[in-house]
Amino acid sequence: MELTHFDQSGKARMVDVTEKNETKRVAVATGRIVMQPETLALIRRGEMGKGDVLGVAQVAGVMGAKKTWELIPMCHPLLLTGVKLDYTLNDTENSITVQATVSTTGKTGVEMEALTAVSVAALTVYDMCKAVDKSMTIESIQLLHKSGGKSGIYSRGDK
């Protein structure tokens, strides 16, 4: 395995993708935020004081994906062709799972954009609910799947 973001002398660099082929690239990431049961109930009923928590988190996640290159120093600015966020509310675990699917046709992948979308969406849920629950925990942010490019398909759990 080669760390591609370092040159031969060990200095950080942005990978040169000039010679790479454009392919359809898709990445799916997930994460979850665990909270008090009352907090989840307020979100579910749409009664959080700051407004529609999941609606605002949706917009924030899309914006996060689009701005990844501004946040992560070695990421390329990408023309994203799709960003989709889905939420699963789990009353048993008092959690919300965030899943982001990001796509583009380009010379580099969108894994970082999917991970950023999940992170920003979860942080937005925290921000909108912290007045009633500062004990929320954001956890398990991870890449589930990626396709496209020279390295092909990756799916978490595949050997």
Spell out the blueprint of helices and strands.
Blueprint: E1 23-34, H1 37-45, H2 53-66, H3 68-71, E2 82-90, E3 95-106, H4 111-129, E4 137-147, E5 154-155
Antiparallel strand pairs: 1-3, 1-4, 2-3, 4-5
Describe this structure in words.
- This protein has 159 residues and is an alpha+beta fold.
- The protein is 29% helix and 29% strand.
- Strands 2-3-1-4-5 form a 5-stranded antiparallel beta sheet, with helices on one face.
- The chain is elongated.
- The two termini are 16 Å apart.
From the 3D structure, determine the CATH topology.
Alpha-Beta Plaits
The shape, in one word, is elongated
Separate helix tally = 4
Portion in strands: 25-35%
Secondary-structure-derived class: alpha+beta
Query: Using DSSP, what is the number of strands?
Result: 5
Residue runs with pLDDT of under 50 for 5 or more positions: none
In spatial order, strands of the major sheet run 2-3-1-4-5
Q: What's the helical proportion of residues?
A: 25-40%
Radius of gyration: 17 Å
Q: What would you give as the CATH superfamily? A: Molybdopterin cofactor biosynthesis C (MoaC) domain
Biggest sheet architecture: 5 strands, antiparallel
Short summary:
By secondary structure, the chain is an alpha+beta fold. The chain is built from four helices and five strands, in the order E-H-H-H-E-E-H-E-E.
